[in-house]
Design brief:
Blueprint: H1 6-21, E1 33-40, H2 47-66, E2 74-81, H3 86-98, E3 104-106, H4 111-123, E4 128-130, E5 147-149, H5 156-169, E6 174-179, H6 184-199, E7 204-210, H7 220-229, E8 233-236, H8 240-252, E9 260-263, H9 267-273, E10 282-285, H10 297-308, H11 314-333, H12 338-345, E11 349-352, E12 355-358, E13 370-375, E14 388-394, H13 403-409
Parallel strand pairs: 1-2, 1-3, 3-4, 4-5, 6-7, 6-8, 8-9, 9-10
Antiparallel strand pairs: 10-13, 11-12, 13-14
Length: about 425
């Protein structure tokens, strides 16, 4: 999974789908219902991202159903575990399209799995919405008219971190190390981060770059190599349970006393670390519940807390808004027809609990920003774990590729 190329994934998915393609029919809604599907990671070290994403999908469907449904139909949600495997993800999506007759697919955690699912969604003309996986290739190299991304991609997110760091260091020369999972997300994120630092005029030297496998359980050798490099800053591209494991092992080595860390510390990681997250580390988050001011966010937070007795993860909020995005498209055309919905959403602005999101016609990338701050030294008494202090939103206008740049990377007709 970590070494399979995007082109090979597309070829495998297309070949596997071709045998069933002739038998495919447009989504057939049962009387009074319409089905949507999500195949994502529900087991293993990054399962929390998938599980809380599913919660967001289901809560959005429940909210729509409670208001009379979508075009008068109740939304039914089907889910499956992809085991972080592109082949499994593709198989799940094929089943959902051909057997469950889903009207829309909501994407997985892993961008490698997302690439396989995107190809199948295009094969069967089914809209797909990426709310966790965020490889820029999904809207460039692999772009199809049925795919939409409502999270900052792997150019936007590291650009936000670079922008924040540039403001911190000014003209001071710095040294940097990186550690990211060894697959497209990790490699693309690091490349974009370093390129953005250069564009921002930061004077930096890379001292070390480590690439453990996704799902690694032992980071000792990587931590030792990073400590030996003595970087001023360490960019950590790990996430989910992998980030928690790395942080705990690094803390045992006194790693955070040797470098200023930068990482994707979300609610789940901060909660799992129970006050042991690196204080004053630079942290970023796609949808931090404590900092977002969109319409309906406070009610959503309260509703989620009442139902699950905890505060929502970013992945829950993002999943919820992905369903809102699809539903807006359906309402615009008064139809579940995939081509009509996709055409209506291309270039459209949709209203969500995060605020309005515009999906650019050139690449269907949402104009969503990234939140960045520093991890508080102490546990916040209201939430029971550390959050960020001085959280700020880096707007999408400073982060996105231009349409010309995105289109240059897309498949030619």
């Amino acid at each position: 999974m970590t070494t399979t190329s995007h082109s090979r994934l597309r070829a495998l998915a297309a070949a596997a789908a071709s045998a069933a393609a002739l038998a495919y029919a447009a989504p057939a809604m049962a009387q009074g219902t319409v089905t949507i599907g999500i195949s994502t990671t529900l087991s293993g070290p990054i399962a929390e991202l998938g599980q809380t994403g599913v919660r967001g999908i289901e809560m959005a469907a429940d909210a729509i159903n409670a208001s009379g449904g979508l075009l008068g139909k109740k939304i039914n949600v089907v889910t499956a575990d992809d085991n972080t495997s592109p082949a499994t993800g593709a198989s799940n999506v094929r089943q959902m399209i051909l057997s469950d007759h889903v009207a829309a697919i909501f994407g997985p955690v892993s961008s490698a799995v997302a690439a396989a699912e995107e190809s199948l969604a295009a094969q069967y003309k089914t809209p797909i919405f990426f709310h966790t996986s965020n490889d820029v290739k999904l809207t460039t190299d692999d772009f199809t008219k049925y795919a939409f991304q409502v999270v900052p991609n792997t150019v936007m997110e590291p650009r936000a971190v670079a922008d924040y760091l540039a403001a911190q260091v000014g003209d001071k020369p710095i040294t940097i190390a990186t550690i990211t999972p060894d697959y497209s997300f990790g490699r693309d994120t690091v490349s974009a981060f370093l390129a953005a630092l250069k564009a921002d005029g930061v004077k930096y030297t890379v001292k070390a770059q480590e690439t453990p496998a996704l799902g690694a359980t032992e980071y000792t050798s990587y931590i030792a190599a990073l400590i030996a490099a003595h970087p001023d800053y360490t960019f950590i591209g790990e996430y989910g349970g992998d980030l928690v494991t790395l942080t705990k092992q690094a803390e045992g080595f006194g790693f955070f006393e040797h470098t200023k860390a930068m990482g994707l510390y979300n609610r789940a990681e901060l909660k799992a670390l129970a006050g042991k997250a690196p204080a004053d580390a630079i942290a970023w988050n796609r949808a931090p519940f404590w900092a977002m001011k969109g319409p309906g966010m406070q009610k959503f937070n309260d509703d989620y807390h009442a139902k699950y007795h905890e505060w929502p993860a970013a992945w829950t909020i993002l999943g919820y808004t992905a369903v809102q995005t699809w539903a807006e498209g359906v309402k615009k055309v008064d139809s579940f027809d995939a081509d009509k919905v996709s055409a209506a959403l291309s270039g459209a602005t949709v209203e969500t609990i995060r605020g309005p999101i515009t999906l650019r016609a050139c690449d269907h990338q949402g104009d969503v920003g990234e939140y960045i701050g520093m991890i508080t030294p102490k546990i916040d008494p209201k939430y029971g774990y550390q959050i960020y202090r001085d959280t700020e939103l880096i707007p999408a206008s400073k982060l996105m590729l231009t349409c010309k740049q995105a289109e240059a990377l897309q498949p030619k007709p």
